[in-house]
Give the backbone structure.
Amino acid sequence: MIKGNLGTLKICQNTKLYKMLKVLDINQKNSLKKLEFILSKRKLSQNENSLRIKKILAHVKKNGDTALIRYEKKFSKIKFNIKKIKFSKSEINRIVKKIDKRLKSSIDLAYNRIKKFHLKQKFSSFKIKDKYKNEMSYIYSAIENIGVYVPGGTSSYPSTVLMNCIPAQVAGVKNIYMTTPALGSSINPAIVYAAKKCGVKEIYKIGGPHSIAALSYGTETFKKVDKIVGPGNAFVSAAKKEVFGDVGIDMVAGPSEVTIVADKSSNPDWIASDLIAQAEHDIFAQSILISDSRDFIESVKKSLKIQLKDLPKKKIAEKSLKNYGLAIYAKKKQKVLEAVNIIAPEHLEINSLKYKNIIKKIKNVGSVFIGKFSPEAMGDYIAGPNHVLPTSGSAKFSSGLSVSDFLKRHSLIKITKTGIERLGPSVINLAEHENLRGHANSIKMRLKKDN
């Protein structure tokens, strides 16, 4: 029996509860392979028909606004005639006035904190000169045009605008264009206010994979961009994957996920609330608990049942927890570390007294939240670091969105006569070793005595 804020929780053997958060004993033989299998099942469930996406992209590329309107009517079930697919300045100003004052104040606070953190990420160009007076420089310059996709409807988040636009703004991106599903439904004033605050140049009213095509190739209304960032559903993610190469993208991100390391010192009610916070995002979201206490796991499961009762997005959260929720029982710290590094979670909460020993050995993670007063929800909105993070195990090889994602790097090389005379022979040796006689000759021509 463990106590929490919701009262004393008895360990319960409710069958439905067990289905909601499956338990994996990672102390057993081959349990790590079983964990990898569980994680892979979620990835497979997100695959979409790429042929369908390719058809949409090609149609928009060829037919522009006409194709955009056709797909928007089809997917959003719009029956009226569409005239404007871009917000006018007067519309934007009118919408912004509708924002609640307290919400406006919260957005202002979040904006300032996020911008302050990202200002520390700015890079400086540099130049070096060697003893032969050769000059080598590294230059940073901002991408000129970026497109930001912001989900609409039930997933309409001003925080998405801030997290995607602020690093671009700090990097010095000249033109930020934003698109969000807004035809046939009222736009969230908070999204428009956040966009205006971030200096977004134009806001389009289209969503879905067809809007990704419009940003990639341009239409009569949409401006063509150089890179697209921002989250979306499986179709949007698939479209971003397809256009990569024609434009840059931030990442092919999947649904949100959290892994929480907790022990007997943790509050089961708090941990349950953090698991639910991720689960309510999407039916494909994944919430994982790792603990060295079976009793604690059971108490969290009991608390989940109680807290879900009055949740507005109860059905989404329940489906997420039932299909992809997982509790991992790990007796030893080494097993905890192995599990976390295999999962490579987007968000990791360490709600344990011995967190320092764990942090040192975590290699694969998007963002880490330390201690009982650092729920992941703080990072989603106002802490400062970016909440656009690698998902589905991609934290093994990638990082969260930052100012560097909106910068290009190129080098400048100026070799002197003395420099090529002293360094050239080594270049010739290397080029001839690689059987690249043309490379060697381009140096030899400059080393002739009559030059």
User: Anything to note?
Assistant: The first strand starts at residue 2 and ends at 4. Confidence is low (pLDDT under 50) at residues 1-18. The first helix runs from residue 15 to 20. The radius of gyration is 26 Å.
